[in-house]
């Protein structure tokens, strides 16, 4: 099973990389964060509360702010050190060694590593244009392969960029209730979606847990995420965290709580970021479509997010060799095989482009160098 990325080295100058999932520096609300940190450290004569030990579930004011945004009770929210930490805590709380976990395929590589570390068995179900393939999942369930949990990335899926429809998510929840598993929805990109759909049925459900993160909207360096789910699971998550690292940074949590509670600050930043990423995905998709590469690949551009997923029409194309040639030209991408949770080489004719953290000029340079590498590949394989 895949457990991480296999980046291709770039030339010494860093080149024009297209392999990352970093947010754009210009989209991060630096001034608002500076003010919120100052406010967090200015409470009273000395901010002793924020600098002391805290509780595993997180600072009360941040949990309350998150619960307000999630339209839920505070008891259904626990703060984490980002989305991946949330997945780790939920997996530790739900999955015993030997339990079955079903994941979309392709999928986020680090999630596969979390499941493997927990000793889980993994089944895979394809992702299609509307989200997880419910027909394939239903066949697995009818065959008696009922997982403890099903892991999905419903908004701007990593790596394909697909966003699941409300109908698919509603039916997924219905299957979870019927068969008794828990849906683990990784919502790291939800706030960047123009109209994210959360089915009404999942509100208050014992079979649905969401992993939130500010890494793509406020910055990954803050290490702030959250788990939103049933209280029995949030209690387990909090207990697990209590014996691992106790809690996160009180100062950072207080600052983020201040930012969220200041009208317009977070929503304004997210609106600007979502528009920027939508423009960049459209731009790179157009560059690819208008080139020789466009005729060679299948590309269904998403409405935004950070990624584009390209699949060569000819399955014999050597994407790993293309990655090496791209590195020589001064650019990079992530090979599709990194996103195969079985680690058996699926998606060998696919690749992911990360387009979020580069300005137009660098995106154009990166795509031009990728096209040069594609020409090099055709010369090698003639």
Plain-language structure description:
The protein has 382 residues and is an alpha/beta fold. It has two domains: 16-28 and 267-381, Aspartate Aminotransferase, domain 1, CATH 3.90.1150; 30-263, Type I PLP-dependent aspartate aminotransferase-like (Major domain) (Aspartate Aminotransferase, domain 2), CATH 3.40.640. Helices cover 41% and strands 15% of the residues. It contains 13 helices and 14 strands. The strands form three sheets. It has an eight-stranded mixed β-sheet, sandwiched between helices. A four-stranded antiparallel β-sheet has the order 10-11-14-13. Strand 6, helix 7 (166-179) and strand 7 (182-186) form a beta-alpha-beta unit. Helix 4 (83-94) crosses helix 8 (231-242) and helix 12 (319-329) crosses helix 13. The model has no long low-confidence stretch (mean pLDDT 93). Its cofactor is pyridoxal 5'-phosphate. Residues 46-370 form the Aminotransferase class I/classII large domain. It comes from Kytococcus sedentarius (strain ATCC 14392 / DSM 20547 / JCM 11482 / CCUG 33030 / NBRC 15357 / NCTC 11040 / CCM 314 / 541) (Micrococcus sedentarius).
């Amino acid at each position: 099973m895949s457990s991480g990325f296999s980046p291709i080295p770039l030339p010494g100058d860093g080149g024009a990389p297209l392999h990352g999932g970093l947010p754009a520096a210009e989209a991060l609300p630096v001034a608002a964060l500076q003010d919120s940190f100052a406010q967090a450290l200015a409470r009273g004569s000395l901010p002793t509360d924020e600098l002391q030990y805290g509780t595993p579930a997180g600072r009360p004011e941040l949990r309350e702010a998150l619960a307000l945004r999630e339209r839920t009770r505070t008891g259904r929210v626990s703060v984490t050190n980002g989305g991946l930490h949330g997945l780790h805590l939920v997996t530790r709380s739900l999955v015993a060694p030997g339990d079955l976990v079903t994941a979309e395929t392709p999928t986020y590589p680090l999630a596969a590593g979390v499941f493997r570390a927990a000793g889980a068995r993994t089944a895979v179900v394809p992702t299609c244009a509307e989200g997880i393939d419910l027909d394939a999942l239903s066949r697995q369930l009818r065959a008696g392969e009922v997982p403890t949990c099903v892991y999905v990335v419903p908004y701007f899926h990593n790596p394909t960029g697909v966003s699941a429809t409300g109908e698919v998510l509603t039916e997924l929840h219905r299957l979870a209730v019927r068969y008794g598993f828990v849906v683990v929805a990784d919502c790291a990109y939800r706030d960047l979606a123009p109209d994210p759909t959360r089915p009404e049925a999942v509100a208050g459900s014992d079979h649905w847990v969401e992993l939130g993160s500010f890494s793509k909207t406020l910055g990954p360096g803050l290490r702030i995420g959250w788990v939103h789910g049933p209280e029995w699971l949030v209690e387990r998550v909090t207990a697990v965290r209590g014996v691992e690292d106790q809690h996160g940074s009180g100062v950072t949590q207080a600052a983020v709580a201040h930012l969220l509670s200041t009208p317009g600050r977070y929503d304004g930043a997210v609106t600007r970021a979502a528009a920027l990423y939508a423009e960049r995905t459209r731009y790179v998709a157009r560059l690819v479509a208008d080139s020789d590469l466009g005729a060679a690949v299948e590309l269904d551009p998403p409405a935004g997010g950070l990624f584009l997923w390209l699949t060569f029409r000819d399955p014999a194309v050597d994407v790993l060799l293309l990655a090496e040639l791209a590195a020589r030209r001064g650019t990079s991408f992530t090979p599709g095989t990194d996103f195969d949770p079985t680690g058996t080489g699926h998606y060998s004719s696919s690749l992911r482009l990360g387009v979020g953290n580069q300005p137009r000029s660098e995106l154009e340079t990166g795509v031009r160098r990728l096209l040069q590498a594609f020409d090099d590949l055709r010369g090698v394989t003639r």
